[in-house]
Amino acid sequence: PENIDYEYRIYHVTKRSDVDYYQVKYGKDVRCIKLFKTMDEASKYAYTLASVTGASVRIHGEDGRISKVKK
Question: Which residues partner with 34 through β-bridges?
Fold first, then answer.
């Protein structure tokens, strides 16, 4: 469909600022889907979700910038 906002079809892996964990978020949602102790665990989970839903994954470094993109 032409009206899909593809910004919402992205899983983001980011470091939480309030706790020493990594989070997986979907699209522009402010809520966290799940927390992980390592970025590797969070990334694997995000890739699994993306493969099932057809979304992409953006992995953010500790500075917040996107360091990896997988479609």
Answer: 24
